Each structure stands twice: as structure tokens, then as C-alpha cells.
Amino acid sequence: MSKKLKVYGLFTGGGGLDIGFKEAGFEIIGASDIWKESENTMNLNYPDIPFICKDITTLTSQDILESTNGVKPDVIIGGPPCQGFSVMGDKNSADPRNVLFEAYARLVDDLEPKCFVFENVKGIKSMFKGRYLNMVANSFSKIGYDIYIKVLNSKDYGVPQKRERVIIVGTKVNRLFKYPPSSNDSIGILKAKKNVQEAIGDLVKKDEKFPNHLALTHGEIVLKRYKLIPEGGKLPPPEELPIEIRRKNFGNTYVRLHRKELAPTMVPGNNAFPVHPTLDRSLTPREAARIQTFPDSHIFTGARKEQCILVGNAVPPLMGAHIARELKKHILDKEYIGTEENLLLKRNSLIEKEVINKVESKLNFIDLFSGAGGIGIGYEQAGYQHVLSADFDPGVAKTFRHNHKNVPFIEGDLSDESIFESVKNVVGNKEIDVIVGGPPCQGFSMFGKRRFVKSQSHNPHDDIRNDLIFTYLKYVEEFNPKWFMMENVAGLVNLADGYFLENFIERVKELGYNNYDYKIINTADYGVPQKRKRFIFLANRTGNIIPWPKPKFYSNPEDWEKPYRNINQVITGLETAKSQTKLNNHTPMNHSPEVVERFSYIKEGCKINPDDLPEHLKYSRTGKLIKSFSKVLFRLDRNQPSHTLVPGHSAFPIHPWLDRQLTVREAARIQTFPDSIEFLGNHGQQCKQVGNAFPPMAAEVFANAIRKAIVNDWKEENLSGLVHYSLIEKTK
After folding, report:
1. Which residues pair with 148 in a beta bridge?
2. Which of 671, 674, 654, 670 is nearest to 662 (CA)?
3. Closest among 239, 237, 243 to 254, alpha carbons compared
4. 8 contacts 68 by C-beta, under 8 angstroms
5. DSSP code at position 175
């Protein structure tokens, strides 16, 4: 094993992978990158290594051989720019960076190395439902390489940083390959570190004369923000900050590292890294380079911005060295024993059909802030697998568990860290297709305290319920579903002049869900016998279009359209004594004779009119004149959809033709709950569970639309022949 293997680096950048291979005993015979600052950095540190500064799409094998004096590499290394499919990027299928692998494969084919190492972000695995990865793997398989794939985390190799990367290894060596086991070994001059303090603690005493150790000069406002960030924590939410230091959103750099812990992935935001554990400033490029395991002898050229990019985009050298050491054994050691565990393709095979099998499998979902399960029932009816539901209401928990005995339910405040951990434990390593849910809406509703905003008696920024939409996104960030659907009241759109929605969207984009849209829909348009306006937010990270379902029901239908479904269609037959004993939740309220008589004066489809009442009905039981009557004193019209069902005084509106309020079952029918769903608790709790729910029938429509987008891979570029993705359907 004394032979020194030769390696050539593509997409070299700051040289992280190259350094790793050098310290593992490889000879670097050349490197290439399109970026001038990469060339300057490598020429400064390795003046004897030929560097080609050229676009890889125009780089030829002849260019490389001329620079190496005809010496061919044993190994080619490098990772094309990842922003085209990073969770932090825009997931743009047309991004030209997404096809740079073709030029990489062309050079591998021409130069015929024994092996190659192709690294990239974790998001490459899921980009375009796995099709991009399949294309990459197929392109290398066709030119005679066995293809291995695994996600490695730099923390498992002595790097004080959590940084996941996909490492694809291609080999023509006639034996199996295995990825390096976890190890805290130092390799050459690359030293393993346990935590941030070990990596950068001594740099506190160094000044800007130390290479790449120039600190940013932060403004007064930024410094005030930094002082509020605890060690290992984030900046408090904007509504908790003094007004003078607020802004709509804050980047990933407003995070303070913890000395005794690992750093998150080093990605510079606004040309700055996260905040120093003990100092009120962002990390210097040198401190970030230390966390990346670059040696101090490796100097980065350019302005501070360029230095940050060179450091932040690099593969940690020590992680690269562990990969190189394992690859060296694979090539040279004839007694080497590999494994098929991570073998993706044998040479000359294809996996083009694999994705078809994947999309035919049953999609799954998580239901957060589930309530009694309206959205979840809709998704179940659409054929999705129900992974988990969660809500804080004990009454809801009893109802859900009673009706869904095989679905885990987490009871508790979803913003509580212990509940967050409980959800994580239940989900485990399961890949989630869709997250759905409707965070409590009272803070946005015009029926709640928001009515008093203009009188300044209620500040929406002080209402903790309004923060729950961001709690919802915390779970989206953790489970990284392909899609998510959030519903809420229409008032979310313009609350606080759009502040909450704007910040919500900014956070959505930060999480990599750049395909998003929102609308205010009327559930009556989708067959629900109820005019219920709801805010719907749809987003995906798959590059699919947003498939808004076409309404099929109208208030004034044409001959080819359907009229709104009305109350008469869903509650007729429930007024009998037999139905009351047969169905759950169908016991009418026991109204007093005075209340029943008062109901009798309310015309169908109308509110109570005090002027129509006889004198004795204008007074309460205590003899006081009733100045105003409840909103529930409204009689529904049997030939129309209901208005939004919101229980008042633990009761629903008045039956269209009976002098009583709707039963819980009748309201559930209007909400499109199946009769098999039983609501537990007292009458008030049952009314609340039904009234707060999203109608299952509408949820099913959206679930089916999302399924079509996923299964058919609906994107703008393959629109032709699909009649706008078959969303304009004929009314049956």
C-alpha cells in the first residue's frame, strides 16, 4: 500500500476535499474551478499544483492532461454547485447548475479514473422525486462504474459541526466499497475537535493580523440584537424585540454558537457566519475555517465576502480525509472487504423505473393542531396513510383516540419542547409526504379579540396564539415533508397590515419551500353545504405546480355546473325520534318554553327581530330587558348552504323548520363528518369540536389535488397535453 495515488479536483472552491485527500496520502496533480478566487487561493497555498480556471462545460480532458504533463488521475473528486437543489435554494428545475454533473461525467468517461467521489447536499436525494439522483447515477453506471451512495455527517468524523452531505462513490475496482466508519481520528495536520470551544477558543486572543481573522464591524442595531441572543440560542421572535431593532425576518446568522456543543452547518448569510459563543460579533472566516477543520496554514484570498464563501461552501477537510483513507484501502488493499449496503447500481445497469414504483406507494401525512380530525379524515378518505395527529385539547384527544384507535395521538401544547420531542419519537425516521393542520385561529379571527384592534385594546403582537403558525413551521423544518397544507381564518391575510403573513412566507422560503401559493376559498365551492371561507396555504419542495382544485359547485350555476349543496340535502330525516336514538351526538337541547316560543317568531333564513316579539319575550328570566340577542338566534334556510358554523353559548343556529337549535350530529353532517365519527365530552365540548373543524369533504378535494401533482410530477415545463394538469375537469 505504498503507492501514492493521484487525484484531480473539479469544482475545487476553497479546497476542502483536495486537502483531505492530500493529508490521507494522495498526490494532487491538478485542480479546476470557474471562480477566480478559488484559483487565487489554491495558487497561494499550492503553487506547484496546476490550476485551470475554466467553466467545466468547456473544460476538456485534453486541457487537464496538458496541465498534468499527460499524467492521468487515479481518482477524480468534486461536487458541482448545489444551490439548484439545496433546501436553502430555490429548487429550480431549470437552474443550469443542475446539469453540471453531465460535464463531470464526460470528463470521468474520458480520463477513466479507477474511482471518483461526487459530493453534494442531502437535498439531491429528493430533488424531483429522486429523478435527478437517478439521472446522475445512471450517467455514471453507463460508463462502467459501480455506484455507491450514502449521507455522511461531518460530526461523525471529528469535525465540530453538524453537516450532512451526500457522498457518491463510483468505482471500477473489482471489489465492494464501504464508507468510512465513525471515527475521531486526526489525519495528518487535520486535527479532530470535540466542540466549538476546542476549535476556536484560542482565537479570542488573536487579532486581525492572524490570517483570515478579520471581524465584521457591526452596526449599533445589530449589536443590540446580538446581546439578546443566549449562548446556544436564537434571537427572540420579532414581536418580543424592542421596536427599534425589529425587522420582518432574520437570517440564519442570528444564532449564537455554544462552546461545549457542535456548530450547525457553516453557511455564510449576508457574508457573515453565526454569532460567536462569547463575543457579540459573527464568526470570522478563520473561526469558521477552524470549525470546518481547515489548518491555519491554509489561507483564503479575496475580500471578506469571498473568504466566507470559500469556507462555507467547502467539504470539511477532515471528513474528506476519512473518505480518502477508506478509498485508498479499497483501491490498493487486495484483502479489503467491502459491503453491498450502500450499493445503488452495478455498472451498466439503470434505475430509471425506480421512481415509478415510489410514487405508486401510499402517500402519508401528519396532522398538527388536528382538532377532532376534519382535515385528517379528508386525507384518509383520499387514501393517505395517517402517521400521527396532535393537539393540546384533552377533549379533542379523547374524541380522536375513540375514532382512530390505530393512529398515534400526541396531546399537549405543540410549542412545548417536550411535545416536539414526543412527535419526533413517534415519527422516527419515516419520510413524510405531507404535513397538514390548522393552528388555532382566534388571534386572527374577526370574531375574537381582533375586533378591538382599532380601539387599541388588543395588540395582535401580544396574542401568543398568533405565533402558532410559526410553531407549525418548526415541524415542517424538522420533518421536511414534500408538501404542506395549512388552513386558517381569512383574517390571517391582513392582520397587522400583513405582518404575520409576510413573516410566515419569509420563513417558508428559508425552509426551501419556494413553490407556494395561498388563497381564500369557500368550502361551499367544493360540495360542503356551508359557506365557510378559509385561508389555505399550499407549498412544496418538489418543484411541482400548486394544484388549486377547480370549484364544481356555484351559487348561480349554469346548466353544466352544480348548485351549492343545501342543508335540506344532509339533515332531512334527522328530525325523527328514531334518528335520535340511532345516531350518536343527536340529542336536542332541552330549551325552556320561553326560548322555544322565541324561536317560533324567527323566519326561515332570518335573524331574530326583537320588534316581532311579544312583550313578554323581550325580557330575560330575571325580568331584565334583553338589549341584544345571540348570533345563534338565526334560523337556517333549508334550500341554502349554512353560514359558517361557529357555536355560540355552546349551541349552533336554529333548525330550518323545527323550533330548536341544531344537534351536534346535524352540525357534523353540515361539516361533512361521517356519521361513524362520535364526538365525546359534554355538549359544549362537542359543539366546539365540530364548529372548529375544517370540513373533511373539502380536505379530501385538496388531498386528491396534491396526490395528482406528486404522482404525475406536474411542473410548468411538462404542462403540454395535460390540459393544465387535468385540473379543469368536466363536472360529473
Report:
1. 169, 343
2. 654
3. 237
4. yes
5. S
Select which of 53, 82, 308, 441 is catalytic: 441
The chain-wide mean pLDDT, for the chain, equals 87
pLDDT at 428: 93
Mean pLDDT value across residues 591-605: 93
Q: What's the CATH fold of domain 6-190+314-356?
A: Rossmann fold (3.40.50)
For residues 180 and 141, the answer to whether their CB atoms sit within 8 Å is no
Q: What mean pLDDT comes out for the span 141-164? A: 96
Largest CA distance in the chain: 108
Q: Name the nearest CA neighbour of 496 among 531, 453, 534.
A: 453
The yes-or-no verdict on residue 178 having pLDDT over 60 is yes
Start-to-end C-alpha separation, the chain: 73
φ/ψ bin of 527: left (φ > 0), alpha (ψ from -120 to 50), beta (otherwise): left
Domain positions in the chain are 6-190+314-356, 362-563+696-718
* Helical H segments across 247-369, by residue range: 285-291, 304-312, 317-332, 354-360
Q: Answer yes or no: are the C-beta atoms of 649 and 630 closer than 8 Å.
A: yes
- Copy the grid coordinates of residue 602: 324567527
* Residue 639, CB-side half-sphere exposure with 13 Å CA sphere: 2
Q: Which amino acid is at 663?
A: T
Q: CA–CA separation, 645 vs 672, rounded Å?
A: 12
Report whether pLDDT(176) > 80: yes
The three three-digit cell numbers of residue 191, written as one number: 486535527
Taking only the tens place, the pLDDT of each residue in 341-387 is 999 999 988 875 433 334 445 899 999 999 999 999 999 999 999 99
Q: Is the pLDDT of residue 724 over 50?
A: no
The answer to whether 308 is a known catalytic residue is no
326 backbone φψ class: left, alpha, beta (φ>0; ψ -120 to 50): alpha
- Bigger pLDDT: 270 or 191? 191
pTM of the model: 0.52
User: Can you say how many angstroms the Cα of residue 35 is from the centroid of all Cα atoms in its chain?
Assistant: 32
The predicted-structure confidence for 543-584, as pLDDT tens digits, reads as follows 888 989 888 899 988 766 789 999 999 999 888 877 777 899
- Distance (Å, whole) CA 679 – CA 402: 9
User: String of b and e for 221-237 (b: at least 16 CB within 10 Å)?
Assistant: ebeebbebbeeeeebee
Q: 11, 157, 88: which is closest to 510 by C-alpha?
A: 88
Cell of 204: 479570542
Q: Which residues contact 294 (CB under 8 A, 6 or more apart)?
A: 14, 16, 19, 311, 314, 317
The domain 362-563+696-718 is placed in CATH, from the list 3.10.290.10, 3.40.50.150, 3.40.50.720, 3.20.20.70, at 3.40.50.150
| Cβ proximity of 291 and 274 under 8 Å | no
Pairwise CA distance, residues 544 & 716, whole Å? 8
Residue 399 phi/psi, 5-degree rounding, is -60, -45
Is residue 342 within 8 A of residue 150, CB to CB? The reply is yes
In this structure, are residues 396 and 680 in contact, taking their beta carbons and an 8 Å threshold? no
Q: How many CA atoms lie within 13 A of 386 on its CB side?
A: 26
Q: How far is CA 19 from the centre of its chain?
A: 34
Provide the β-strand partners of residue 32: 52
Strand boundaries in 12-135, DSSP class E: 27-33, 51-53, 75-78, 115-121
Q: At what angle do helices 696-711 and 374-381 cross, to 10 degrees?
A: 50
Q: Do 6-190+314-356 and 362-563+696-718 have matching folds?
A: yes
For residues 30 and 392, give the distance between their C-alpha atoms in angstroms, rounded to a whole number.
60
Give me the helix-helix angle, 16-23 and 317-332, nearest 10°.
50
* Mean pLDDT score, 126-148: 85
Q: Which of 117-131, 248-262, 348-362, 398-412 has the lowest mean pLDDT?
A: 348-362
Mean pLDDT calculated for residue range 270-284:
90
Whether the per-residue pLDDT at 26 is higher than 60: the answer is yes
